[in-house]
Amino acid sequence: MTPAGRQVITGPEFHYHLLRNALQVFNRNPHQLDADEYGKIYQKTERSFALESLVLASDEAKRVVIPERILDESVALVVARYPNPGEYLLDLSRNGLDEQVLRSALRRELIFDATMQRVAFGCAEVSDIDVGLFYELHRTRFAAPETRIARHIMITVNPDFPENRRGKAFGRMTQIESKLKARIDRFHEFAVRYSECPTAMQGGRLGAVTRGQLYDALDAVLFSMAAAQISPVVESELGFHILLCEKIKPGKQIPLSDAAPGIRRLLWERRRRRRQQDWIASLQGESGN
């Protein structure tokens, strides 16, 4: 099946790309896709096959030798996905492949990957100056936000249940609030007993909370509280709450020494990709594509 109006690309290695892309994107074989899905996969396959063919025609790729042992291992990984050899051979046939074609397609794939790795290998090392400059230009990325260790008690508002209608729920919560004022150390017990949130089983524990994680009303109250303070009754979209701010962990800047390894990896990967992209662009220029 070829999308209408498109030039037919034949060849078993192309069929392998078609199968690989269909499995990656939709987790289904090409023949299991509808027309729209197949059209998208076909376009993707045209691009991936053209790129692989371009790279394999390069001088760099011609110097790559894939040991038979590595190729055998790649074939074995494919075979292992199937419950038995019969299913494996049937699926190959269904997709216009056989064992020899699969081996050839996997060899192409391995040569492509090895060539791209070789091309990327020559990029410049990331210096300490590069790392430091990136850190200074993106300091906000390395700022750990303030967190509050919190618990809550919640009474839901639900007009279908008399005891949870808004007025009744608010009255129940104000009674809990008055009892709690002199018993802050027993907040977790009150949560287990009265809260209608699943967190009740953990004493109402919300854990470490950063700004923006809770409903707006709860967020605003929690981040205005002092440590070891209980809030007044707060209303959210779910119902009424009482918050306990157990502890405040101030925000802090992650030091360069801690951030440096991750920055170095990021910059290294960027350089590798850029070098690969530039090399591919040069191949396309030479081929006139």
Identify the notable features of this structure and list them briefly.
289 residues, alpha+beta, Chitinase A, domain 3, five-stranded antiparallel beta sheet, 11 helices
Major β-sheet profile: 5 strands, antiparallel
How many H/I helices? 11
Q: Order of SSEs, N→C?
A: HHHHHHHEEHHEHEEEEH
Per the principal axes of the C-alpha atoms, what is the gross shape?
A: elongated
Q: Taking all residues together, what is the mean pLDDT?
A: 92
Helical fraction equals: 40-55%
Percent strand equals 5-15%
Structural class computed from helices and strand pairing:
alpha+beta
Total E-strand runs: 7
Number of domains: 2
Q: Flag low-confidence runs.
A: 4-9
The whole-angstrom Rg is 30 Å
How far the N terminus sits from the C terminus, by CA atoms, comes to 26 Å
Report on this structure:
The chain is an alpha+beta fold and 289 residues long. The chain folds into 2 domains: 12-121, no CATH class; 146-250, Chitinase A, domain 3. Helix content is 55%, strand content 12%. It has 11 helices and 7 strands. The longest helix is centred in the C-terminal third of the chain and has 32 residues, at 256-287. The relative contact order is 0.11.
Set out the fold topology:
Blueprint lengths: L11 H15 L8 H22 L2 H4 L5 H12 L5 H10 L4 H23 L6 H10 L5 E2 L2 E10 L9 H15 L6 H8 L10 E6 L5 H7 L6 E2 L3 E2 L3 E11 L2 E2 L2 H32 L2
Antiparallel strand pairs: 1-7, 2-3, 2-6, 4-6, 5-6
Helix pairs in contact: 1-2, 1-6, 4-6, 6-11, 7-11
